Amino acid sequence: MKAGLIILGLSVSLNLSAQGVPVPHIFTTGNPIVASEFNANFQELSDRNDTTQTQITQSASDISTNQSSISTIQGNITQIQAEITNLQTNTSSQLLQFVGNSTGTVNGSQGIRAMTELCQADFVDSRVCTTEDYAKTTNFPASIPNTTYAWIIPSNVVGSGNGLNSGAPVNDIYSGQVGASIANFTCGGWRIIGGTGLRVSGTGQFWVSACNTPIPVSCCK
Predict the structure, then answer these.
(1) Which own/partner contact pairs does 55-60 have at CB distance under 8 Å and 24+ positions apart?
(2) Total-model pTM
(3) CA-to-CA distance for 148 and 10, rounded, in angstroms?
(4) Contact, 211 vs 102, CB < 8 A?
(5) Is 157 among the domain residues?
(6) Residue-number span of the structural domain to which 179 is assigned
(7) Is residue 4 part of a domain?
(8) What are residue 63's phi and psi, to 5 degrees?
(9) How far apart are CA 42 and CA 106, in angstroms?
């Protein structure tokens, strides 16, 4: 029996040594095996096994977390790619769609900023329409009464007129309106209450009228 324990102890010691990690007690041939030392070796192995299992579990958890993060990143990349595509599409066209008139009103001398702020109060990320935006809109909102007028910005003016008496009028291609100068379409740069500016009716009819009357703003986005 003693010889068997000695052989077993030698076998355990050799196996432990083969792994390159020393254990508390090494048994050699001919030396008696003490039960407490033998048990201490196995306890050491058990503790090492527990530690290894904990590390494996943690590694598995880390892998799962990383996979989740990778999925999130891939989702973000897909969204960014879609936004880039949308931006490229919008950049290539440079045209917006008419979405409606502002509920607030301004006269023609209050400036583009005041007009844009009225649009954004009703339609997020919108701005004042240009005549080209309006003319090329393909999906108009619900019907707007024909008697409702709104300011609109000229977008393609041709001609050499530069004053009321120039004798060479200018024309906004999309509205079809004619004036002595661009100032006649923009209330003198949207700053002169006594001037004239472009406005559009609910059915898309364009007019040049006095700037002193507060009216809504045509909004595009």
Answers:
(1) none
(2) 0.56
(3) 103
(4) no
(5) yes
(6) 98-220
(7) yes
(8) -65, -45
(9) 89
Overall domain count for the chain = 2
- Tokens describing residue 183: 């100032």
What sign does the CA torsion over 208, 214, 215, 220 have?
positive
The rounded distance, in Å, linking the Cα atoms of 208 and 199 is: 6
* 170 strand-pairing partners: 159, 179
Three-class SS state of 93: helix
Residue (of 206, 209, 202, 214) closest to 101 by Cα position:
202
CB neighbour list of residue 106: distance below 8 Å, 6 or more residues apart = 114, 115, 118, 151, 214, 215, 217
Cα(47)–Cα(105) distance, rounded to whole angstroms? 79
Residue 91, in any domain of the structure: no
**Cβ partners under 8 Å of residue 140, min gap 6:** 98
Distance from chain centroid for Cα 82: 9
The pLDDT tens digits of the residues spanning 152-195 come to 999 988 776 554 445 557 888 899 888 888 888 999 999 999 99
| Identity of residue 44 | E
pLDDT on residue 158? 79
